[in-house]
Amino acid sequence: MASSLAMVALLLVSCAAVAAATKYTVGDTSGWAMGADYTTWASDKKFKIGDTLVFNYAGGAHSVDEVSAADYAACTASNALQSDGSGTTTITLKTAGKHYFICGVAGHCSNGMKLLVDVAAASPAPAPKAPSTTPTTPSTTPETPETPASPSSSSGVTPKTPATVLAPPVKQSANAAGLRAGSWAILGLVGLATVQLGFF
Q1: Contact between 35 and 113 (Cβ < 8 Å)
Q2: Is 133 helix (H, G, I), strand (E, B) or coil?
Q3: Which of 112, 138, 148, 200 is 20 to 30 A away from residue 23, measured at CA?
Q4: What whole-number distance in Å separates Cα of residue 100 and Cα of residue 72?
Q5: How many CA atoms lie within 13 A of 183 on its CB side?
Q6: pLDDT tens profile 70-99
Q7: Pairing between strand 82-84 and 52-56?
Q8: What residues does each domain of the chain span?
Q9: CATH, range 17-119
Q10: How many whole angstroms separate alpha carbon 66 and alpha carbon 113?
């Protein structure tokens, strides 16, 4: 399972790298020719692994030679790492660091046909997240029932007050019932006497 996830992550990173690759036409409309300023042309570009350089020039009149830093400084193509003179040379930047290109025709490099590109190292891809193995505990908080919406006052219907439910009477002993009945009888007599006194 882990190896399958790693393989999928690698494929996704590869696809993303290919999709993000940029194709640069060296010198833009000037192409690969004498009189162009390749230092200025390269200065505002961010080269990265997977990008391609396309050199357009008259076949046989120029060449594209990838050379070492020392040969770049000396404008010599005698120990070129790779060389092409077909007229359209496409080079894929496969490694980070500085890459040096010159025209191998005598006198052309010293007249400006040289290009240095600095390729940025690829940023590491984020590791894929492993699925969580921590079990989730169910919530013990009781759910609050929803309160029914009150009727709108604009509907003209007055909401009814819910009826109050009384608790059932508490069962009392015979003595307590007798005391209560006696208390009511005394209160009744006192009230009756008060009423009669009020008439005299």
Answers
A1: no
A2: coil
A3: 112
A4: 6
A5: 6
A6: 999 999 999 999 999 999 999 999 999 999
A7: unpaired
A8: 17-119
A9: 2.60.40.420
A10: 12
